[in-house]
Amino acid sequence: EQENLMDAEDRLTQMMKTKMDLESQISDMRERLEEEEGMAASLSATKRKLEGELSDLKRDLEGLETTLAKTEKEKQ
After folding, report:
1. In this predicted model, what pLDDT tens digit does every residue of 55-75 receive, in sequence order?
2. What is the pTM for the complete model shown?
3. How many independent structural domains does the chain possess?
4. Which residue range forms the structural domain that includes residue 43?
């Protein structure tokens, strides 16, 4: 009976160590998830900004092409 009690205590100790290790891993993963979500939000904001700039550049290019076409037509 004493041996069974010692085995149970050893298993309990091992389970507690495993639990603490798993809780530590969960904490690390949560922290990493927060960092990744922050980076994703930042990348998304940068993407929207660049898409806006691209849209502006396309609009400017269309304006220049229109001006060029008018100028060429006037030369003829």
Report:
1. 999 999 999 999 999 999 998
2. 0.65
3. 1
4. 1-76
